[in-house]
Write a structure and sequence with these properties.
about 250 residues, mainly alpha, Farnesyl Diphosphate Synthase, about 65% helix, globular
Length: about 250
């Protein structure tokens, strides 16, 4: 009998032509990242540890120091939703959200007067000070641009209750998901981890832009399938909801 309560995805690992490699510094970095998160009162869950392992598998050839930098950021972003969910929001939702957006964006600066409103902003500010020591100017600007785009798209979405309840068309959703999927951050972090300094022409090339978009789509959409039940129970939507809304004959 077919189990209608489960979703079966293709086994992509078995058909991957590349040998899986794990960064040899994984265990050391995992402990360091855990201690760093704990120092800001950020909960370290089992799923977080698995994500660090995924990071070590994604960039197996970088140095221990660069792996630590990337693991800290990627892990922090994974738990960001939980952190922001616990932040008190005033009755003035728009004003409160804009304040959070401004604070999180300002975390990526060198100003000593920065005052974080959340543990996430405090940890992000600390991380950015470390990154500024080694990051190249081009890599820094790419990261900042992508970060601002993602932050603004996500916070504007969260601030507008109508946006969260109105299911958009597919093209609108794809653009929104690309903006908030942090895909460009991943590529910039890979560039940073391997101590590369790509020229701007690479990132402005249309073929490269398409590759980035498709990579973001693949990871974001797979995540949407896995998280559909959780998101629909919270009154939100994702790719699955958008597709079923566009074609009522689709069902799961």
């Amino acid at each position: 009998m077919v189990n209608t309560n489960s979703i079966l995805l293709s086994d992509l690992i078995s058909i991957c032509p590349f040998k899986a490699e794990c960064n040899p510094a994984y265990e050391t970095v995992s402990h360091a990242t855990e201690a760093w998160l704990n120092s800001y009162g950020i909960p370290y869950k089992e799923s977080t540890q698995k994500f660090i392992l995924g990071t070590a598998l994604s960039i197996p050839h970088c140095s221990q120091a660069r792996l630590r930098d990337v693991c800290d950021l990627w892990t922090l972003l994974v738990v960001a939703d939980d952190i922001l969910d616990n932040v008190p929001i005033s009755e003035d939702v728009d004003g409160s959200t804009q304040q959070l957006l401004k604070n999180v964006t300002e975390a990526l600066q060198t100003a000593d007067s920065f005052k974080p409103l959340t543990p996430f902003a405090a940890a992000l500010h600390d991380w950015w000070q470390r990154i500024l020591i080694n990051i190249t100017p081009g890599c820094r600007e790419r990261f900042l641009t992508a970060y601002r785009t993602a932050s603004e798209a996500m916070f504007l979405h969260l601030a507008n209750k109508k946006n969260r309840q109105t299911i958009p068309d597919l093209d609108t959703y794809i653009k929104f998901r690309r903006d908030t999927g942090l895909g460009v951050h991943i590529f910039v972090c890979i560039e940073y981890s391997l101590e590369l300094d790509s020229i701007d022409e690479c990132w402005e090339n249309n073929a490269f832009k398409y590759l980035v978009d498709y990579a973001v789509d693949a990871t974001s959409w797979a995540n949407d399938v896995y998280s559909f039940n959780i998101e629909q129970s919270q009154g939100s939507y994702n790719l699955v909801s958008v597709l079923m809304h566009a074609d009522p004959s689709l069902n799961i």
